[in-house]
Protein backbone atom coordinates (compact mmCIF):
# COMPACT_ATOMS: atom_id res chain seq x y z
CA UNK A 1 0.00 0.00 0.00
CA UNK A 2 1.32 3.43 -0.91
CA UNK A 3 0.37 6.84 0.35
CA UNK A 4 1.36 10.21 -1.03
CA UNK A 5 1.92 13.15 1.27
CA UNK A 6 2.57 16.79 0.55
CA UNK A 7 5.40 17.95 2.73
CA UNK A 8 4.55 21.57 1.93
CA UNK A 9 0.95 22.64 1.42
CA UNK A 10 0.92 25.55 -0.99
CA UNK A 11 -1.77 27.48 -2.87
CA UNK A 12 -1.92 26.87 -6.62
CA UNK A 13 -2.21 30.91 -7.40
CA UNK A 14 1.58 31.07 -6.45
CA UNK A 15 3.88 30.29 -9.42
CA UNK A 16 6.53 28.28 -7.48
CA UNK A 17 9.84 27.17 -8.97
CA UNK A 18 10.38 24.22 -6.60
CA UNK A 19 8.20 22.03 -4.43
CA UNK A 20 8.41 18.75 -2.59
CA UNK A 21 6.23 15.69 -2.31
CA UNK A 22 6.60 12.86 0.16
CA UNK A 23 5.35 9.33 -0.25
CA UNK A 24 5.59 6.06 1.62
CA UNK A 25 7.41 3.27 -0.17
CA UNK A 26 6.80 -0.43 0.30
CA UNK A 27 10.57 -0.91 0.08
CA UNK A 28 13.31 1.59 -0.49
CA UNK A 29 14.89 -0.86 -2.93
CA UNK A 30 12.05 -0.17 -5.34
CA UNK A 31 13.69 3.16 -6.27
CA UNK A 32 17.27 2.60 -5.13
CA UNK A 33 18.96 1.72 -8.40
CA UNK A 34 22.38 2.88 -9.63
CA UNK A 35 20.88 5.25 -12.21
CA UNK A 36 18.27 6.71 -9.89
CA UNK A 37 17.35 10.38 -10.39
CA UNK A 38 18.77 12.93 -7.98
CA UNK A 39 15.43 14.25 -6.72
CA UNK A 40 14.92 11.51 -4.08
CA UNK A 41 15.68 12.07 -0.39
CA UNK A 42 15.04 9.07 1.84
CA UNK A 43 14.16 9.17 5.54
CA UNK A 44 12.55 6.95 8.16
CA UNK A 45 9.39 8.30 9.74
CA UNK A 46 8.28 8.03 13.36
CA UNK A 47 6.11 5.09 12.28
CA UNK A 48 9.23 3.20 11.19
CA UNK A 49 8.32 3.35 7.51
CA UNK A 50 10.68 4.53 4.82
CA UNK A 51 9.72 7.76 3.10
CA UNK A 52 11.16 9.68 0.20
CA UNK A 53 10.87 13.37 -0.55
CA UNK A 54 10.63 14.05 -4.26
CA UNK A 55 11.85 17.49 -5.33
CA UNK A 56 10.98 18.91 -8.73
CA UNK A 57 12.77 21.76 -10.46
CA UNK A 58 9.59 22.78 -12.29
CA UNK A 59 6.17 21.08 -12.48
CA UNK A 60 5.82 17.68 -10.80
CA UNK A 61 5.56 15.71 -14.01
CA UNK A 62 4.30 12.16 -13.64
CA UNK A 63 2.40 12.76 -10.39
CA UNK A 64 -1.28 11.70 -10.51
CA UNK A 65 -4.27 13.91 -11.14
CA UNK A 66 -6.21 12.15 -8.37
CA UNK A 67 -3.72 13.52 -5.83
CA UNK A 68 -3.94 17.11 -7.07
CA UNK A 69 -1.42 17.07 -9.92
CA UNK A 70 -1.51 15.76 -13.47
CA UNK A 71 0.54 18.19 -15.55
CA UNK A 72 0.53 17.64 -19.31
CA UNK A 73 3.31 15.42 -20.64
CA UNK A 74 3.78 16.93 -24.08
CA UNK A 75 6.74 16.20 -26.32
CA UNK A 76 8.17 18.68 -28.81
CA UNK A 77 6.56 17.81 -32.12
CA UNK A 78 3.34 16.40 -30.63
CA UNK A 79 0.25 17.16 -32.69
CA UNK A 80 -2.73 17.95 -30.48
CA UNK A 81 -6.22 19.36 -30.72
CA UNK A 82 -9.11 18.64 -33.10
CA UNK A 83 -7.70 17.07 -36.24
CA UNK A 84 -4.18 17.43 -34.78
CA UNK A 85 -4.32 21.09 -35.75
CA UNK A 86 -1.60 22.29 -33.33
CA UNK A 87 2.04 21.22 -33.19
CA UNK A 88 3.72 21.59 -29.78
CA UNK A 89 7.18 23.18 -30.05
CA UNK A 90 8.34 24.52 -26.71
CA UNK A 91 7.30 24.90 -23.06
CA UNK A 92 6.88 28.57 -22.21
CA UNK A 93 6.15 28.21 -18.50
CA UNK A 94 4.02 26.57 -15.85
CA UNK A 95 1.96 27.35 -12.78
CA UNK A 96 0.16 25.62 -9.96
CA UNK A 97 -2.62 24.27 -12.17
CA UNK A 98 -1.35 24.44 -15.76
CA UNK A 99 1.57 24.56 -18.16
CA UNK A 100 1.75 26.78 -21.24
CA UNK A 101 3.25 25.74 -24.55
CA UNK A 102 4.35 27.46 -27.73
CA UNK A 103 2.60 25.76 -30.63
CA UNK A 104 2.04 26.24 -34.34
CA UNK A 105 -1.45 26.38 -35.78
CA UNK A 106 -1.12 23.94 -38.67
CA UNK A 107 -3.96 25.57 -40.59
CA UNK A 108 -2.75 29.16 -40.48
CA UNK A 109 0.98 28.56 -39.69
CA UNK A 110 0.76 31.26 -37.02
CA UNK A 111 2.19 30.72 -33.56
CA UNK A 112 -0.15 30.39 -30.59
CA UNK A 113 0.03 29.58 -26.89
CA UNK A 114 -1.69 26.45 -25.58
CA UNK A 115 -2.48 26.45 -21.87
CA UNK A 116 -3.01 22.85 -20.73
CA UNK A 117 -4.73 22.60 -17.36
CA UNK A 118 -3.66 19.82 -15.01
CA UNK A 119 -5.78 16.71 -14.90
CA UNK A 120 -6.79 17.56 -11.34
CA UNK A 121 -7.90 21.10 -12.16
CA UNK A 122 -9.65 19.98 -15.33
CA UNK A 123 -11.68 17.45 -13.32
CA UNK A 124 -12.82 20.16 -10.90
CA UNK A 125 -13.87 22.68 -13.50
CA UNK A 126 -17.60 22.13 -13.41
CA UNK A 127 -17.63 22.00 -9.62
CA UNK A 128 -15.89 25.33 -9.12
CA UNK A 129 -17.46 28.78 -8.66
CA UNK A 130 -14.94 30.29 -11.09
CA UNK A 131 -14.62 28.88 -14.57
CA UNK A 132 -12.00 30.18 -16.99
CA UNK A 133 -13.63 29.11 -20.28
CA UNK A 134 -16.93 30.68 -19.22
CA UNK A 135 -15.12 33.95 -18.48
CA UNK A 136 -13.42 33.79 -21.87
CA UNK A 137 -16.75 33.42 -23.64
CA UNK A 138 -18.17 36.43 -21.80
CA UNK A 139 -15.10 38.48 -22.70
CA UNK A 140 -14.84 37.38 -26.33
CA UNK A 141 -18.42 37.97 -27.40
CA UNK A 142 -19.59 36.49 -30.68
CA UNK A 143 -16.12 36.63 -32.26
CA UNK A 144 -12.57 37.22 -30.95
CA UNK A 145 -12.57 40.63 -32.71
CA UNK A 146 -15.26 41.81 -30.28
CA UNK A 147 -12.87 41.48 -27.33
CA UNK A 148 -10.95 44.39 -25.85
CA UNK A 149 -7.32 44.59 -27.05
CA UNK A 150 -6.40 44.67 -23.37
CA UNK A 151 -7.99 41.34 -22.37
CA UNK A 152 -6.56 38.01 -23.42
CA UNK A 153 -8.45 36.38 -26.30
CA UNK A 154 -9.63 32.78 -26.52
CA UNK A 155 -8.93 31.40 -30.00
CA UNK A 156 -9.87 27.77 -29.41
CA UNK A 157 -10.50 25.20 -26.68
CA UNK A 158 -10.51 21.42 -26.53
CA UNK A 159 -10.21 18.48 -24.14
CA UNK A 160 -7.62 15.76 -24.63
CA UNK A 161 -6.53 12.65 -22.78
CA UNK A 162 -3.30 12.88 -20.84
CA UNK A 163 -0.57 10.28 -20.45
CA UNK A 164 -0.33 7.88 -17.52
CA UNK A 165 -1.96 9.18 -14.35
CA UNK A 166 -2.35 12.75 -15.65
CA UNK A 167 -6.06 12.43 -16.46
CA UNK A 168 -7.71 14.67 -19.04
CA UNK A 169 -6.48 18.15 -19.93
CA UNK A 170 -8.70 21.09 -20.73
CA UNK A 171 -6.67 23.15 -23.22
CA UNK A 172 -7.12 26.85 -23.99
CA UNK A 173 -5.57 28.37 -27.11
CA UNK A 174 -4.67 32.08 -27.05
CA UNK A 175 -2.46 34.42 -29.06
CA UNK A 176 1.26 34.15 -28.40
CA UNK A 177 2.47 36.97 -26.17
CA UNK A 178 6.01 38.15 -25.51
CA UNK A 179 6.04 37.53 -21.77
CA UNK A 180 4.60 39.00 -18.58
CA UNK A 181 5.02 42.32 -16.83
CA UNK A 182 6.91 40.83 -13.88
CA UNK A 183 9.56 39.49 -16.27
CA UNK A 184 9.72 42.85 -18.02
CA UNK A 185 10.07 44.70 -14.71
CA UNK A 186 12.92 42.44 -13.62
CA UNK A 187 14.75 42.75 -16.95
CA UNK A 188 14.42 46.52 -17.29
CA UNK A 189 15.34 47.17 -13.65
CA UNK A 190 18.48 45.11 -14.21
CA UNK A 191 19.37 46.94 -17.43
CA UNK A 192 18.24 50.47 -16.57
CA UNK A 193 18.22 50.60 -12.76
CA UNK A 194 14.48 51.33 -12.58
CA UNK A 195 11.39 50.46 -14.56
CA UNK A 196 10.71 53.55 -16.72
CA UNK A 197 7.86 55.53 -15.08
CA UNK A 198 6.23 56.48 -18.39
CA UNK A 199 6.24 52.87 -19.54
CA UNK A 200 4.76 51.84 -16.19
CA UNK A 201 1.96 54.33 -16.66
CA UNK A 202 1.24 53.07 -20.18
CA UNK A 203 1.17 49.44 -19.06
CA UNK A 204 -1.09 50.24 -16.10
CA UNK A 205 -3.49 52.25 -18.26
CA UNK A 206 -3.84 49.25 -20.56
CA UNK A 207 -4.43 46.95 -17.58
CA UNK A 208 -7.10 49.29 -16.23
CA UNK A 209 -8.81 49.31 -19.61
CA UNK A 210 -8.79 45.52 -19.49
CA UNK A 211 -10.30 45.54 -16.00
CA UNK A 212 -12.98 48.03 -17.05
CA UNK A 213 -13.88 45.88 -20.05
CA UNK A 214 -14.00 42.68 -17.96
CA UNK A 215 -16.27 44.36 -15.42
CA UNK A 216 -18.54 45.60 -18.22
CA UNK A 217 -18.86 41.95 -19.31
CA UNK A 218 -19.76 40.84 -15.79
CA UNK A 219 -16.37 39.24 -15.04
CA UNK A 220 -14.29 39.83 -11.89
CA UNK A 221 -10.66 38.81 -12.40
CA UNK A 222 -9.75 38.32 -8.67
CA UNK A 223 -6.05 37.65 -9.31
CA UNK A 224 -4.53 40.85 -10.65
CA UNK A 225 -0.75 40.83 -10.32
CA UNK A 226 2.20 41.69 -12.54
CA UNK A 227 2.76 38.17 -13.82
CA UNK A 228 -0.85 38.02 -15.02
CA UNK A 229 -0.28 40.98 -17.34
CA UNK A 230 1.09 40.05 -20.77
CA UNK A 231 2.50 42.10 -23.63
CA UNK A 232 2.56 41.50 -27.36
CA UNK A 233 5.70 40.55 -29.24
CA UNK A 234 7.02 42.43 -32.28
CA UNK A 235 8.65 39.22 -33.55
CA UNK A 236 7.43 38.06 -36.94
CA UNK A 237 6.72 34.43 -37.75
CA UNK A 238 10.03 34.15 -39.60
CA UNK A 239 11.90 35.69 -36.64
CA UNK A 240 10.31 33.19 -34.28
CA UNK A 241 11.28 30.43 -36.73
CA UNK A 242 14.93 31.52 -36.50
CA UNK A 243 14.76 31.81 -32.71
CA UNK A 244 13.38 28.28 -32.44
CA UNK A 245 16.17 26.99 -34.69
CA UNK A 246 18.82 28.72 -32.57
CA UNK A 247 17.26 27.69 -29.25
CA UNK A 248 16.24 24.02 -29.31
CA UNK A 249 14.06 22.73 -26.46
CA UNK A 250 15.98 21.80 -23.33
CA UNK A 251 15.22 19.28 -20.59
CA UNK A 252 16.05 19.08 -16.91
CA UNK A 253 17.93 16.05 -15.50
CA UNK A 254 15.81 12.93 -14.84
CA UNK A 255 13.36 13.07 -11.94
CA UNK A 256 11.50 10.21 -10.27
CA UNK A 257 7.71 10.35 -10.05
CA UNK A 258 4.77 8.03 -9.48
CA UNK A 259 4.64 7.27 -13.20
CA UNK A 260 8.37 6.57 -13.37
CA UNK A 261 11.38 8.60 -14.47
CA UNK A 262 10.51 11.92 -16.14
CA UNK A 263 12.55 14.57 -17.93
CA UNK A 264 10.70 17.86 -17.64
CA UNK A 265 11.17 20.51 -20.30
CA UNK A 266 12.89 23.74 -19.27
CA UNK A 267 10.63 26.81 -19.49
CA UNK A 268 11.91 28.89 -22.41
CA UNK A 269 10.16 32.20 -22.98
CA UNK A 270 10.54 34.41 -26.02
CA UNK A 271 13.40 36.93 -25.81
CA UNK A 272 12.53 40.12 -23.94
CA UNK A 273 11.43 42.89 -26.27
CA UNK A 274 13.62 46.02 -26.57
CA UNK A 275 12.60 49.05 -24.53
CA UNK A 276 11.59 51.06 -27.62
CA UNK A 277 9.21 48.29 -28.68
CA UNK A 278 7.74 48.15 -25.17
CA UNK A 279 6.76 51.83 -25.41
CA UNK A 280 4.81 50.98 -28.57
CA UNK A 281 3.47 47.67 -27.29
CA UNK A 282 0.07 46.58 -26.06
CA UNK A 283 -0.39 45.20 -22.56
CA UNK A 284 -3.07 42.61 -21.91
CA UNK A 285 -4.83 41.39 -18.77
CA UNK A 286 -4.51 37.60 -18.80
CA UNK A 287 -4.98 34.42 -16.78
CA UNK A 288 -8.65 34.43 -15.91
CA UNK A 289 -8.26 31.09 -14.15
CA UNK A 290 -9.63 32.48 -10.87
CA UNK A 291 -12.25 34.74 -12.44
CA UNK A 292 -15.85 34.73 -11.28
CA UNK A 293 -19.12 36.18 -12.49
CA UNK A 294 -20.00 39.58 -11.02
CA UNK A 295 -23.52 38.36 -10.19
CA UNK A 296 -22.25 35.68 -7.80
CA UNK A 297 -22.37 36.58 -4.11
CA UNK A 298 -19.43 34.92 -2.42
CA UNK A 299 -16.82 35.41 0.27
CA UNK A 300 -14.33 32.68 -0.62
CA UNK A 301 -10.62 33.46 -0.36
CA UNK A 302 -9.06 35.03 -3.45
CA UNK A 303 -5.83 36.74 -4.55
CA UNK A 304 -2.32 36.30 -3.24
CA UNK A 305 -1.88 38.00 0.17
CA UNK A 306 0.04 41.15 -0.96
CA UNK A 307 -2.74 42.02 -3.43
CA UNK A 308 -5.74 40.86 -1.39
CA UNK A 309 -8.43 43.42 -0.58
CA UNK A 310 -9.37 44.13 3.07
CA UNK A 311 -12.93 42.84 2.69
CA UNK A 312 -11.51 39.46 1.66
CA UNK A 313 -9.26 39.32 4.72
CA UNK A 314 -12.32 40.09 6.85
CA UNK A 315 -14.43 37.32 5.33
CA UNK A 316 -17.07 39.65 3.89
CA UNK A 317 -18.88 39.16 0.62
CA UNK A 318 -16.99 40.93 -2.12
CA UNK A 319 -17.53 42.19 -5.65
CA UNK A 320 -15.67 43.81 -8.53
CA UNK A 321 -14.01 46.38 -6.27
CA UNK A 322 -11.52 43.70 -5.15
CA UNK A 323 -9.93 44.19 -8.58
CA UNK A 324 -9.59 47.92 -7.94
CA UNK A 325 -7.71 47.27 -4.69
CA UNK A 326 -5.41 44.74 -6.35
CA UNK A 327 -4.82 47.15 -9.21
CA UNK A 328 -3.75 49.84 -6.72
CA UNK A 329 -1.18 47.48 -5.22
CA UNK A 330 0.40 46.71 -8.60
CA UNK A 331 0.48 50.42 -9.47
CA UNK A 332 2.70 50.97 -6.44
CA UNK A 333 4.74 47.84 -7.15
CA UNK A 334 5.49 48.70 -10.77
CA UNK A 335 6.10 52.43 -10.38
CA UNK A 336 7.94 52.45 -7.05
CA UNK A 337 9.65 49.09 -7.50
CA UNK A 338 8.61 47.29 -4.32
CA UNK A 339 5.53 45.64 -2.89
CA UNK A 340 3.25 47.80 -0.80
CA UNK A 341 2.18 44.96 1.52
CA UNK A 342 4.19 42.04 2.86
CA UNK A 343 2.36 39.09 4.35
CA UNK A 344 4.67 38.51 7.30
CA UNK A 345 4.76 38.46 11.08
CA UNK A 346 5.56 41.81 12.72
CA UNK A 347 7.95 40.89 15.51
CA UNK A 348 8.18 44.41 16.94
CA UNK A 349 4.41 44.84 17.38
CA UNK A 350 3.62 41.12 17.80
CA UNK A 351 1.13 41.15 14.92
CA UNK A 352 0.45 38.01 12.93
CA UNK A 353 0.48 38.17 9.13
CA UNK A 354 -3.13 39.26 8.71
CA UNK A 355 -3.06 41.68 11.66
CA UNK A 356 0.08 43.24 10.22
CA UNK A 357 -1.48 43.81 6.81
CA UNK A 358 -4.66 45.26 8.33
CA UNK A 359 -2.47 47.51 10.48
CA UNK A 360 -0.56 48.83 7.47
CA UNK A 361 -3.81 49.34 5.56
CA UNK A 362 -5.02 51.59 8.37
CA UNK A 363 -1.71 53.48 8.50
CA UNK A 364 -1.79 54.12 4.75
CA UNK A 365 -5.21 55.77 5.02
CA UNK A 366 -3.90 58.33 7.49
CA UNK A 367 -4.88 56.36 10.56
CA UNK A 368 -8.56 56.12 9.65
CA UNK A 369 -9.99 52.97 11.19
CA UNK A 370 -12.38 50.62 9.46
CA UNK A 371 -15.95 51.86 9.75
CA UNK A 372 -18.42 49.99 11.94
CA UNK A 373 -20.77 49.55 8.97
CA UNK A 374 -18.09 47.57 7.14
CA UNK A 375 -16.98 45.50 10.12
CA UNK A 376 -20.57 44.61 11.02
CA UNK A 377 -20.93 42.67 7.75
CA UNK A 378 -17.49 41.05 8.03
CA UNK A 379 -17.59 37.62 9.74
CA UNK A 380 -13.91 37.71 10.72
CA UNK A 381 -13.89 41.28 12.03
CA UNK A 382 -14.34 40.14 15.64
CA UNK A 383 -11.11 38.16 15.39
CA UNK A 384 -9.05 41.30 14.85
CA UNK A 385 -11.09 44.31 16.03
CA UNK A 386 -12.72 45.36 19.30
CA UNK A 387 -16.12 46.99 19.68
CA UNK A 388 -14.58 50.41 19.00
CA UNK A 389 -13.35 49.24 15.57
CA UNK A 390 -9.75 49.32 16.78
CA UNK A 391 -7.30 46.48 16.32
CA UNK A 392 -7.40 44.40 19.49
CA UNK A 393 -3.65 44.64 20.04
CA UNK A 394 -3.94 48.42 19.62
CA UNK A 395 -0.54 49.03 17.96
CA UNK A 396 0.70 52.59 17.71
CA UNK A 397 -0.13 53.89 14.23
CA UNK A 398 2.67 54.99 11.92
CA UNK A 399 2.46 57.64 9.20
CA UNK A 400 2.88 55.67 5.97
CA UNK A 401 1.78 58.47 3.64
CA UNK A 402 2.06 57.68 -0.04
CA UNK A 403 3.83 61.00 -0.61
CA UNK A 404 6.56 59.98 1.82
CA UNK A 405 6.88 56.43 0.49
CA UNK A 406 7.15 57.58 -3.13
CA UNK A 407 8.99 60.86 -2.65
CA UNK A 408 11.91 59.46 -0.67
CA UNK A 409 13.12 57.67 -3.79
CA UNK A 410 13.68 60.97 -5.64
CA UNK A 411 12.78 59.81 -9.14
CA UNK A 412 9.52 61.70 -9.70
CA UNK A 413 8.73 65.40 -9.62
CA UNK A 414 6.67 66.75 -6.71
CA UNK A 415 3.71 67.15 -9.05
CA UNK A 416 3.96 63.52 -10.20
CA UNK A 417 4.31 62.31 -6.61
CA UNK A 418 1.16 64.20 -5.63
CA UNK A 419 -0.84 62.87 -8.61
CA UNK A 420 0.28 59.29 -8.01
CA UNK A 421 -0.42 59.48 -4.26
CA UNK A 422 -3.92 60.80 -4.91
CA UNK A 423 -4.56 58.04 -7.46
CA UNK A 424 -3.39 55.35 -5.04
CA UNK A 425 -5.69 56.69 -2.32
CA UNK A 426 -8.64 56.37 -4.68
CA UNK A 427 -7.81 52.73 -5.43
CA UNK A 428 -6.92 51.74 -1.88
CA UNK A 429 -10.00 52.79 0.07
CA UNK A 430 -10.64 50.43 2.99
CA UNK A 431 -14.36 50.27 2.25
CA UNK A 432 -15.08 48.90 -1.24
CA UNK A 433 -18.13 51.17 -1.43
CA UNK A 434 -15.76 54.14 -1.49
CA UNK A 435 -13.55 52.82 -4.29
CA UNK A 436 -14.27 54.18 -7.76
CA UNK A 437 -15.02 51.89 -10.67
CA UNK A 438 -12.37 51.04 -13.24
CA UNK A 439 -14.22 53.19 -15.76
CA UNK A 440 -14.10 56.17 -13.39
CA UNK A 441 -10.39 55.66 -12.73
CA UNK A 442 -9.66 55.82 -16.45
CA UNK A 443 -10.51 59.53 -16.27
CA UNK A 444 -7.99 60.22 -13.50
CA UNK A 445 -5.51 63.05 -14.26
CA UNK A 446 -2.62 60.70 -13.47
CA UNK A 447 -3.14 59.15 -16.92
CA UNK A 448 -3.18 62.47 -18.81
CA UNK A 449 -1.02 62.34 -21.93
CA UNK A 450 -0.68 58.54 -21.89
CA UNK A 451 -2.09 56.10 -24.41
Automatic annotation (TrEMBL):
It is an enzyme of class 2 (transferase). ATP binds at residue 115. One of its GO terms (molecular function) is ATP binding. GO terms for biological process: regulation of mRNA processing; spliceosomal complex assembly. The keyword ATP-binding applies. It comes from the Eukaryota. Keywords: ATP-binding, Kinase, Nucleotide-binding, Serine/threonine-protein kinase, Transferase. Signal peptide: none annotated. Residues 86-447 form the Protein kinase domain. It catalyses: L-threonyl-[protein] + ATP = O-phospho-L-threonyl-[protein] + ADP + H(+); L-seryl-[protein] + ATP = O-phospho-L-seryl-[protein] + ADP + H(+). InterPro entries: Kinase-like_dom_sf, Prot_kinase_dom, Protein_kinase_ATP_BS, Ser/Thr_kinase_AS, SRPK. Its EC number is 2.7.11.1. Belongs to the protein kinase superfamily. This is non-specific serine/threonine protein kinase. It comes from Lentinula guzmanii. The lineage of its organism: Eukaryota, Fungi, Dikarya, Basidiomycota, Agaricomycotina.
